[in-house]
Amino acid sequence: MMKNRRELFFAVILMIGVLALWGCPKKADMSAVPEEQPAPAQVEQKAPEKEAAKERAAAKEEELQPIYFDFDKSFVRDDARSVMKSNADWLKANPKVKVRIEGNCDERGTIEYNQALGQRRAASAKKYLTDLGISAKRISLISYGKEKPVCKQSNEDCWQKNRRGDLVAD
Fold first, then answer.
1. Positions of the chain with pLDDT under 50
2. Any bridge partners for residue 168, and if so which?
3. Are residues 153 and 102 in contact, defined by beta-carbon separation less than 8 angstroms?
4. How much helix, strand and coil, in percent to the nearest 5, is found in the chain?
5. Model-wide pTM > 0.70
6. CA-CA 20 to 30 A from 8: which of 24, 63, 116, 133?
7. 40 torsion bin: left (phi>0), alpha (psi -120 to 50), beta (else)
């Protein structure tokens, strides 16, 4: 009796697996060349949009500086405070520019832990900017955890470079 139930259970699981794989969509044929479509008509930007675009372009040239964090910490270090102050000054001088703070971690730790730590780091940097007078509405956050390292070696110097908060003009 027990053997029949076990066999039935495995048969049902196998059938579910087969149906799930069978129901998956086929990959698209990428060898077909798409037809060329005419370019969309250029729409003239409004003056405020042009100003914002110019400020974003300027932000790309005069990049906002990243800040660095200690191992397993999310508070803004003393040496990062002056960097955050200059970032805040630049944002005050360019009030139409929004900023995205990207929280990053080194390779140590689980994916889930580093995602959460990266989020805490980004939130800490956001709070520091808002304390310096930048509107929270201008700041968005994202955590990349350990997924976007700037250095891929496994040593302390490299790990320090990866424990950072990148400020990116949007």
1. 28-35, 43, 59
2. 100
3. no
4. 50, 10, 40
5. no
6. 24
7. beta
